[in-house]
Amino acid sequence: MKIIAVIAMRHVKSLILLILLIFALPIHAKIISQNGSLILTPSHGMGSAWGKANCQSCHALQRLHESVPKTKAIVDKKKFVTCTGCHGDNGAKKTEPQCLVCHNPQDMPANPMRTGKHRHDFDASKDLPTTSRQCVVCHAASNMNGKFELNIDLTMFNDKPKNTPLFEGGQGGFAYKDQNEFCLRCHNRNHQQANYPIIHAGRRDQSIAAEDDYRKIDKHGVPEGLGDGIYNGLRDGYAYKTIVDCVDCHTMHGTTNKGLIIDDSRKGAFLLNSKFRNKPYSVKLLENDTNYSQLCVLCHNMKEISGEGERDTGNGLSGVHFDNGSDCVTCHNHGERVQKGL
């Protein structure tokens, strides 16, 4: 009888623990979010839940995400397949991430905007459908709190650059300081990531030359000179000597333009006044993808009109000069150190 009583007591304790875990879930989820990451660790369920692929063995669907109605609506509809998208594989190595279950044009159309066939799918030779496995190359530790935090929402690559233009003298791995440095961990000539090498790129291809040019781009990078060049006039939000992020012009998640150039002001130009940026303004590459005027005019607005600067670029904005119909990059090439008025 004593043995039976001990066994029964153990079952009661296990049942109480399970009930506490289930009913504490919304609070537990909030605490994880506030602490930086929703990715589950070996401490999940005080260690007893780590490595398990079947979430519903412990969690009741109706109790999940009660404090986050928008998320709960998606989870209620799509059920436990949504778990790995936010919480990782829980140590169950065979479980695939399911980011796109929620992050798609139907369920979360603006987080991020994913319209257009061109996207960063790690194959420059053709356009491929984005997969959830590609998402976690850059976003393996997102905390899903709606705020972009550099060292939480981006994956920390183990990088060991040596004597490169941006990281001159660097001898060991260290954290990147901004989004551009994150991009340059792959987009360089001699310290690319082992699992994501850039192949079939010519020496002047920006996919590998980006790091070379980063300190040379007069305004679109670490600036050189006085920063008071011949082109005077920027829209609200930008100022000369502002370091412009790669993603201000290049979107990773979808665009109709080649080179991952944004096709909508809401997909980039993040420092612009929000009312202006969210209008939105379209961006189309003109003249067989060689004219970038509609992109440049999002941020550039000349104070002293010259060279047909009053002319509408085609998206409702004016303020960049159209001398004889020429494009901005005819004179202001990406990465040309000699241009002091970009």
Structure report:
- The chain has helices at 2-23, 25-34, 69-78, 83-87, 132-138, 150-153, 179-184, 206-213, 274-277, 293-296.
- The chain is mainly alpha-helical.
- It has 2 domains: 1-155, no CATH class; 217-342, no CATH class.
- The model is unreliable at 2-8, 17-35 and 335-342 (pLDDT under 50).
Summarize this entry quickly.
With 342 residues, this protein is mainly alpha-helical.
Output the keywords.
about 350 residues; mainly alpha; 2 domains; 10 helices; disordered N terminus; disordered C terminus
Helix and strand topology:
Blueprint: H1 2-23, H2 25-34, H3 69-78, H4 83-87, H5 132-138, H6 150-153, H7 179-184, H8 206-213, H9 274-277, H10 293-296
Counted beta strands: 0
The largest pleated sheet is described as: none
Low-pLDDT segments, ≥5 res: 2-8, 17-35, 335-342
What is the subunit organization of this protein?
A: single chain
Report the total helices: 10
Gyration radius (Cα, Å) is: 25 Å
Give the helix level as a range of percent. 10-25%
**Distance N terminus to C terminus?**
87 Å
Principal-axis shape: globular
Derived structural class: mainly alpha
The chain-level mean pLDDT equals 77
Succession of helices and strands: HHHHHHHHHH
Q: Please tell me the total number of domains.
A: 2
User: Beta-sheet strand percentage?
Assistant: under 5%
